[in-house]
């Protein structure tokens, strides 16, 4: 039994791009929201050194650039007024665990503490002799202390209320450029320095030297406590290392897929479906090579990588998995936002109000109502249901239907009207197989001939179609010379066609010349 | 001798009385197929020439429906009577004329015998009396007394110049035949005896009539002509036939109210219907007489409502229709198609239930393009052949089981039977392990534009059931045609040679994507391109270990290292272009055949080259059609065509061509077979399993030869002993559905396992305990059991003696 096959264009060589994995789809779903795409305030002229997200909803975020700190609304992504009470470039920023306070270090060596809402300047912590490039609040519950690390190779533990330095933690021999607090303990934190060392500190046991020392073998640009509190990721040089702190500082893995220096790390989450269990943690790393890589440290595999046109300096990911921010050395801020699933979920003043959409007392549908007749149409089958597949309908384009009825000329015109060169060529090839193409060409009226000539002019020098179309163009001119002569419009098409063909001939000639130059060389190379 | 690949559609098939079996004339035998499974159940063997008709004795009452008797006639001049349930020959009548067609009218109308004695049974046969050489043989329709086994002397209904097909009306009252532009119809008297007069009517038409049909109840005759017209005569023979029955003596002789009827023809009216664009092959009235089925070259079955002339269609059958037969079961009928396929139709809805397909026949169009290899391809390890068919498909056919395995759509195009061929599958190649298939399809250009050669690589799954497309390559050798594709025996490499003067080596690659190791892409890529002095490359072959690639460049053979693509040596200078090239097994010899295609070559040659000395070992002057070599030892076989001028004496017409078996070291052939129709034939060694073919134990390779008409024979190359065969016929599955199951289908959990255990219907080595085991209704027929039983006893005793 013969079936009806639609006309298909020739296959094209597929590139090595595969269908995106769900993970890649997830990371690509962070798109620049349309409404803020055009706002110029997203780009600053100075490098964005640091980005931090507020730990509480709606997860505002801050970015430091030049001598100011910009706060962005986590809800609308609109910039709030900036804090610019710095005397030098702000270098590091951190939110307190309740999101109410904000600490920022600058290059003069001062750590400033602000109210995140009112932006009022609350404290100045002075003590560092050189620039402060690392500030972090404890992440668990402690609201009174913070750590900072400076270019004077000292890590300081501050009591914020009294503006006093509690401990000077010594041990690093070069600039301390990064630090992170443990997510489970208020007393543990980690710092990384340009002396290639990463030190883990515990303010309970000792105030003299570090609990643990890890050798990263390159100046450390960023450190990150992983959510379990037992693992640390360090970045420096063009690699990221994962360490097991509980297991005595054992190196677990070294991820070496960046080409240039990795500048920042942050935690990312992949939300699969809904609920906490469905979330999987990833490490996001950005580097000067312009790549953001997503690393799955459970499988020790890179799951996604994304390229940006500029060197990247800082990265941030909102705890609710909705926003991803990347800062570049040229001052651009790449904000990616995923479409929230439940739009109605709103957070007002820390309390959550859910607007319940389907009210329980729903009306029972009656046949008097239009929707009664549409009920169940969008019903999805549940797992145990037995599915009876409807036979798949073969999709027939208009030219396919016409070809099936042997209306060849109309099929050709229908294909030409669709302006898809592949399908036009496919229809032409089918007509050749039926030995009807010449007949079609000679039957076209003037308007349709103009359509064909326009198509030929456009595509007959294209390498993929040239084999068929140049010969066809020749035939068309031969067959319809009389009609072309009598119409101005057609003559103009022919003029254009002639021009294109002449240009193509020039190209071919120069290619031949090049081939003439190369082929003796190849022969000599083959002989030796 | 094991033969197969016969045509199922040379003659109309016949249904058994219970419509569970279909009797199909296949060459010298009648094959019986089960209509519920579409598989062959048994075979009636006995005729020595082609069977020309098969007539099932119809059931006269419901109880005799289970009776399975049939009459067959054959070109060997014998009429045989069979019980096809057993199957068993009951009676043979030798009439010494070649029989082209036979009808038995008296079977159709029940005979009421007052005397208690059955009247004699008469058959009307279209015979050919072969006279002396040089004189044309005479044809005629004669009468034969089947009861007394002799021809009724003096009764010759018609003398014709060509063998005519005799058509019988469903009531058995009339028989007719069409000859050129006229129909001849005879009335068969209700009480047939040896001496009885016949009334006849002639109907004339202006075109050659191709087929005719009788209305089941009325005196209506339909005929189709070569232009596609259907003529419908009503009231045929009102004058002639009704004169005897004077009760309705309405004389209607006025010429003017007989529309359409030619001058003196005896009919009331003649209507013409014209839908078919070419020759009508099928005409058949439905059993109630309300509809007329017609079909022709378009592959569309048209159902005409007889009273109104309204039409209904069953389109896209895909091949020209040849016969339409309905069965005693009103829901089942069959169409025979020209592509050697019988379609079983569910009747009122006209949907195709299943099809019984034989080997695809070579299409007449394919001969037009000489040099295109429309030859079948062998898969030696699995015993399969791949046959390119007209409808852009490749059929896999099992040589040992003699049935189709599967079909693969090579090119997604709609096939209209009867269209001019512009796209065709030229070449098919199978790798030695059968895991990869390679096809080449060519689209012919229209006025020099739009030609396209496409090379496709396919991956075959297990058992050839599923074949999936792996790689498509457009214009692999620019616009030059591909002459040959050869696979490397060790795998993962293929070579395609073209007439355009180059060859390409293709390799199979798996690509692991860098990011995700789970997704694997595999495909064929061009590995190397080679050419030798721009000469057209006609054929290529790999050595059995895959280390040497031999490519024939016009008249010389070039040897290459396929991995590094370096030319190793050039040997030979034959007189004609080389057409065939094969390395002989694991020996150091290469055999080549050269001939110029198209024009008859003057210097064809078969040459064996020694690879160690790079020189000719020995050669013959033979026109070679095909070469094959055994996989293990150094024997090879060639299919040689004798020269056309050598066939001066006509007696040797059938032994024109021969198969020669050689050992590469000696120039003396080991054995010779004479065959016919070698043009376009193929030859291959095929490894056989011992359980399938009980040949000699010395070798497990048999030689398969397929001729131009796609009939094949398996020969035993090493001894005179024929390959006897035990064919695995499936038992007729009697699990018919009635009642609940016929309406709602099978109950899912209810399995009839006990019934499905195939009960062997052939002699088996089981002891008598095994023979009678199983439920009594599933036992084979008693005569069969008896011989088995006795045989088993004999075996046991011989065992005791040893």
From TrEMBL, chain A:
The processes (GO biological process) annotated in the record are: positive regulation of transcription by RNA polymerase I; rRNA processing
What ranges does the record give for the region Disordered, renumbered to this chain? 1-20
Q: Where mainly located? A: nucleus
Among the Pfam families in the record, one is: UTP15_C
Its subcellular locations are: Nucleus, Nucleolus
User: Is the keyword Endoplasmic reticulum assigned to this protein?
Assistant: no
What are the ranges of the WD repeats? 125-168, 169-211
Q: Where is the U3 small nucleolar RNA-associated protein 15 C-terminal domain?
A: 379-520
- This chain's protein is named U3 small nucleolar RNA-associated protein 15 C-terminal domain-containing protein
Q: What is the lineage of its organism?
A: Eukaryota, Viridiplantae, Streptophyta, Embryophyta, Tracheophyta
From TrEMBL, chain B:
Offer one Pfam family short name for this entry.
Beta-prop_WDR75_1st
Q: Which InterPro entries match?
A: Beta-prop_WDR75_2nd (IPR057644), WD40_rpt (IPR001680)
Q: Where is the composition biased (Basic and acidic residues)?
A: 253-264
PROSITE patterns on file:
WD_REPEATS_2 (PS50082), WD_REPEATS_REGION (PS50294)
**Boundaries of every WD repeat-containing protein 75 second beta-propeller domain copy:** 392-641
**WD repeat ranges per the UniProt record:** 202-233, 273-314
Region labeled Disordered — which residues? 243-264
Q: Which UniProt keywords apply?
A: Nucleus, Repeat, Ribosome biogenesis, rRNA processing, WD repeat
Q: Report the principal subcellular site.
A: nucleus
The reply on keyword Nucleus is yes
Q: Enumerate the subcellular locations listed in this protein's record, separating them with semicolons.
A: Nucleus, Nucleolus
Protein name from the UniProt record: WD repeat-containing protein 75 second beta-propeller domain-containing protein
């Amino acid at each position: 039994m013969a079936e009806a096959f639609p006309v298909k264009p020739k296959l094209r060589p597929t590139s090595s791009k595969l269908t995106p994995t769900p993970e890649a789809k997830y990371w690509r779903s962070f798109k620049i929201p349309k409404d803020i795409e055009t706002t110029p305030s997203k780009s600053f002229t100075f490098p964005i050194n640091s980005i931090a997200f507020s730990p509480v909803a709606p997860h505002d975020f801050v970015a430091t650039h030049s001598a100011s700190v910009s706060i962005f609304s986590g809800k609308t992504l609109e910039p709030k007024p900036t804090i610019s009470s710095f005397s030098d470039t702000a270098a590091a920023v951190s939110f307190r665990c309740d999101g109410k306070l904000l600490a920022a270090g600058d290059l003069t060596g001062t750590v400033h503490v602000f109210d995140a809402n009112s932006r009022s300047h609350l404290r100045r912590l002075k003590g560092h002799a050189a620039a402060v490039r690392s500030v972090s609040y404890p992440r668990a519950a402690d609201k009174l202390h913070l750590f900072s690390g400076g270019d004077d190779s000292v890590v300081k533990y501050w009591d914020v209320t009294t503006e006093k330095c509690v401990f000077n933690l010594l041990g690093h021999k070069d600039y301390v450029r990064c630090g992170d607090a443990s997510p489970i303990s208020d007393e543990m934190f980690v710092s990384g320095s340009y002396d290639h060392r990463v030190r883990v500190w515990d303010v309970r046991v000792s105030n003299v030297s570090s609990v643990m020392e890890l050798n990263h073998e390159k100046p450390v640009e960023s450190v990150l406590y992983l959510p379990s509190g037992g693992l640390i990721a360090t970045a420096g040089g063009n690699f990221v290392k994962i360490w097991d702190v509980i297991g005595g500082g054992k190196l677990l893995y070294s991820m070496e897929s960046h080409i240039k220096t990795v500048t920042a790390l942050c935690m990312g989450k992949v939300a699969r479906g809904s609920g906490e269990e469905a979330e999987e943690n990833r490490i996001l790393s950005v580097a000067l090579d312009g790549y953001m890589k997503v690393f799955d440290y459970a499988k020790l595999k890179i799951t996604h990588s994304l390229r940006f046109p500029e060197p990247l300096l800082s990265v941030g990911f909102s705890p609710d998995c909705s926003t991803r921010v990347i800062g570049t050395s040229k001052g651009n801020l790449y904000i990616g936002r995923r479409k929230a699933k439940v739009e109605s979920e709103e957070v007002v003043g820390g309390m959550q109000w859910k607007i319940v959409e389907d009210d329980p007392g729903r009306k029972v549908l009656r046949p008097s109502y239009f929707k009664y007749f549409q009920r169940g149409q969008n019903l999805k089958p549940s797992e145990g249901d037995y599915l009876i597949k409807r036979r798949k309908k073969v999709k027939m384009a208009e030219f396919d239907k016409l070809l099936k009825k042997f209306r060849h000329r109309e099929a050709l015109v229908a294909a030409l009207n669709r302006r898809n060169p592949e399908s036009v060529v496919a229809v032409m090839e089918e007509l050749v197989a039926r030995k009807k193409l010449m007949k079609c060409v000679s039957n076209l009226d003037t308007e349709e001939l103009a359509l064909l000539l326009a198509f030929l002019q456009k595509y007959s020098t294209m390498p993929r179609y040239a084999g068929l179309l140049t010969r066809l163009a020749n035939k068309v001119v031969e067959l319809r010379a009389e009609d072309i002569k009598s119409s101005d419009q057609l003559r103009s098409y022919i003029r254009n066609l002639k021009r294109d063909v002449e240009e193509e001939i020039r190209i071919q000639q120069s290619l031949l010349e090049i081939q003439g130059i190369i082929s003796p060389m190849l022969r000599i190379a083959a002989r030796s | 001798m094991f033969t197969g690949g016969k045509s199922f559609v040379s003659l109309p098939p016949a249904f058994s009385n219970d419509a569970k079996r279909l009797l199909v004339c296949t060459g010298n035998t009648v094959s019986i197929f089960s209509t519920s499974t579409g598989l062959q159940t048994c075979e009636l063997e006995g005729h020595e020439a082609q069977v020309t008709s098969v007539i099932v004795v119809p059931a006269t009452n419901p109880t005799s429906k289970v009776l399975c008797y049939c009459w067959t006639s054959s070109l060997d001049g014998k009429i045989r009577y069979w019980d096809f349930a057993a199957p068993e020959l009951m009676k043979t009548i030798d009439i010494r004329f070649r029989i082209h067609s036979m009808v038995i009218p008296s079977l159709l109308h029940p005979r009421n015998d007052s005397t208690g004695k059955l009247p004699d049974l008469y058959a009307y046969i279209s015979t050919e009396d072969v006279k002396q050489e040089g004189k044309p043989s005479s044809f005629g329709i004669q009468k034969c007394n089947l009861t007394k086994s002799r021809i009724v002397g003096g009764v010759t209904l018609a003398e014709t110049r060509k063998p005519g097909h005799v058509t019988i009306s469903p009531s058995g009252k009339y028989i007719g035949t069409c000859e050129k532009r006229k129909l001849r119809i005879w009335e068969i008297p209700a009480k047939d005896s040896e001496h009885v007069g016949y009334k006849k009517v002639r109907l004339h038409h202006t075109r050659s009539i191709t087929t005719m049909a009788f209305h089941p109840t009325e005196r209506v005759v339909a005929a189709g002509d070569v232009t596609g017209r259907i003529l419908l005569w009503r009231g045929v023979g009102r004058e002639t036939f009704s004169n005897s029955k004077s009760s309705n003596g309405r004389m209607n002789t006025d010429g003017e109210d007989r529309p359409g009827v030619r001058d003196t023809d005896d009919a009331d009216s003649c209507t013409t219907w014209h839908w078919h664009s070419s020759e009508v092959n099928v005409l058949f009235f439905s059993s109630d007489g309300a509809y007329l089925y017609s079909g022709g070259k378009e592959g569309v079955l048209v159902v005409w409502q007889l009273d109104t002339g309204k039409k209904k269609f069953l389109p896209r059958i895909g091949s020209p229709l040849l016969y339409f037969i309905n069965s005693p079961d009103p829901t089942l009928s069959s169409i025979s198609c020209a592509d050697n396929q019988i379609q079983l139709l569910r009747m009122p809805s006209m949907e195709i239930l299943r099809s019984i397909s034989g080997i695809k026949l070579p299409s007449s169009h394919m001969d037009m393009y000489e040099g295109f290899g429309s030859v079948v391809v062998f898969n030696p390890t699995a015993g399969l052949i791949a046959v390119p068919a007209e409808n852009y498909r490749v059929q896999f056919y099992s040589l040992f089981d003699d049935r189709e395995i599967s079909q693969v759509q090579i090119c997604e195009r709609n096939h209209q039977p009867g269209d001019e061929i512009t796209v065709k599958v030229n070449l098919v190649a199978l790798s030695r392990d059968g895991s990869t298939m390679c096809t080449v399809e060519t689209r012919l250009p229209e006025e020099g534009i739009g030609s396209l050669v496409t090379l496709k690589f396919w991956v075959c799954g297990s058992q050839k059931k599923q074949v999936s497309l792996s790689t498509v390559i457009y214009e692999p050798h620019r616009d030059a045609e591909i002459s040959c594709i050869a696979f490397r025996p060790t795998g993962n490499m293929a070579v395609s040679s073209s007439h355009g003067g180059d060859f390409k080596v293709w390799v199979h690659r798996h690509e692991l994507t860098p990011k995700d190791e789970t997704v694997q892409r595999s495909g064929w890529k061009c590995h190397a391109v080679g050419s030798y002095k721009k000469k057209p490359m006609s054929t290529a072959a790999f050595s059995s270990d895959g280390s040497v690639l031999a490519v024939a460049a016009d008249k010389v053979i070039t040897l290459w290292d396929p991995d590094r693509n370096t030319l190793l040596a050039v040997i030979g200078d034959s007189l004609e272009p080389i057409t065939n090239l094969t390395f002989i097994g694991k020996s150091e010899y290469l055999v080549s055949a050269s001939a110029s295609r198209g024009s008859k070559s003057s210097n064809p040659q078969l040459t064996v080259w020694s690879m160690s000395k790079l020189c000719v070992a020995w050669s013959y002057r033979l026109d070679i059609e095909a070469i094959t070599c055994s996989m293990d030892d150094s024997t090879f076989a060639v299919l040689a065509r004798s020269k056309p001028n050598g066939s001066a004496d006509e007696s040797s017409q059938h032994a024109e061509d021969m198969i020669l078996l050689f050992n590469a070291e000696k120039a003396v052939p080991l054995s010779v077979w004479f065959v016919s129709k070698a043009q376009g034939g193929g030859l291959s060694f095929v490894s056989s399993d011992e359980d399938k073919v009980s040949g000699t134990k010395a070798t497990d390779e048999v030689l398969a030869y397929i001729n131009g008409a796609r009939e094949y024979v398996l020969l035993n190359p090493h001894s005179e002993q024929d390959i006897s065969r035990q064919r695995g016929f499936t038992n007729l599955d009697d699990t018919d559905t009635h009642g609940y199951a016929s309406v709602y289908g099978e109950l899912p959990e209810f399995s009839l396992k006990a019934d499905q255990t195939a009960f062997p219907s052939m002699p088996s080595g089981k002891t008598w305990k095994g023979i009678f085991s199983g439920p009594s209704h599933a036992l084979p027929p008693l005569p069969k059991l008896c011989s088995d039983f006795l045989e088993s006893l004999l075996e046991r005793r011989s065992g005791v003696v040893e």
